[in-house]
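Catalogue entry: protein
Contents: sequence, fold tokens
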Amino acid sequence: MKKKKKEEIKTVIISYDEKPGIQAIGNVYPDLMPVEGHYSTISRDYEYVRHGTLSLLAGIDLISGKIHYKVFERHRSSEFIEYLKELESIYPDEEIVIIQDNYKIHTSSETLEYLKTIPEKFKFVFTPKHASWLNIIESFFSKMVRSVLRGIRVDSINKLEERISLYINQINEKPVIFTWKHKMEERDEMPGGITI
């Protein structure tokens, strides 16, 4: 009698984190455009209007480079569970490994109750405490802050959500797979003439 081959389990690896408190800031007075011969840059008044904040829950599929995200006005266990449900619908037949930090909502009783309803669907891998910067998604958040969020002015919280979505959707058109590289060409030679 032949033994049946164990069905191969497909695995997806997601580098995940939250970016809470993204401020929707609007101008009180319009920006002043540059004037040739007088002002070479845009001038902005220091006063601003705060329309509220958003939380971005995002993860990078480390195999495809695609970013999966959801934007909420808050980020609690219920929003995290909604994000997990979204991943579950995107990857219905795969095991999902999520690399994340030790934030409370990831292990709250509400989250654990949800995970019991779908046993063996998710596997959580936690970064060491005080070292969440090791997670690749942090590099994406850093780039997003530098290229989109720094100095952004919007009329409403909805406009901020639109701008975040536009940015991530454009990146997803041509996703980039992150690869570690640090002086790999020098790895065979050690200082002092020692070869490994």
